[in-house]
Amino acid sequence: MRQDITDEQLRALLPRLRRFALWLTRHGASADDLVQSAVERALTWRGTRQADGDLRAWLFTILYRQFIDGQRRQRRYARILALFVHAEEQTTATEEVAEARSMLEAFARLAPEQRALLLLVGVEGLSYREAADALGVPIGTVMSRLSRARHALRALGEGQINLPPVRLLK
To answer: What are the boundaries of each domain within the chain?
Structure first.
């Protein structure tokens, strides 16, 4: 049995539906969209309304269910978006971890004298003079070893595995 909804009935209920939608959404444009969606659904499904049922209650029910469905849809999209954002952050973090591990491995492959100088000057912040005094070598030696260590570390970090041969002194 098809239930017709008259234009006058809808016009009388639109301000109430909009007020209810405005309280639900807290945004005028969203409330208008929600009312439009609810009225569209009501007109599409008007044959399912019970003949003795209250039109106002039926329209409020449709509007509220449309609102709840929209909220669920927003949460679902937010979760999906969060998965992509989280995956992107994870990828970035994974790349950074891999790069850091690569540099640490390259650092470990340097000669001990070069590692010591890089640690003293680069990490601990000692001056060349202080590093020379700490290692008991001339300042010129510190500067040349540090230059070679930086060059070797840069080459190893870029994938070039040409370590300069270490000379053994007898």
So the answer is: 7-83, 110-170
Fold assignment, 110-170: Arc Repressor Mutant, subunit A (1.10.10)
**Other Cβ atoms within 10 Å of 107 Cβ, number:** 17
* Coil, strand or helix at 13: helix
Taking only the tens place, the pLDDT of each residue in 4-55 is 778 898 899 999 999 999 998 888 999 999 999 999 998 898 888 877 778 8
Q: Supply 28's token pair.
A: 């005028």
**What 3 state SS string does 34-55 have?**
HHHHHHHHHHHCHHHCCCCCCH
Query: Which residue carries 């009312």 as its tokens?
Result: 35
102, 157 in Cβ contact below 8 A?
yes
Give the C-alpha separation, 149 to 112, whole Å: 10
CATH of region 7-83: 1.10.1740
Length of the chain in terms of residues written:
170
Residue with tokens 């070893």: 145
> How does DSSP assign 102-130, residue by residue?
HHHHHHHHS-HHHHHHIIIIIIS---HHH
The reported pTM is: 0.48
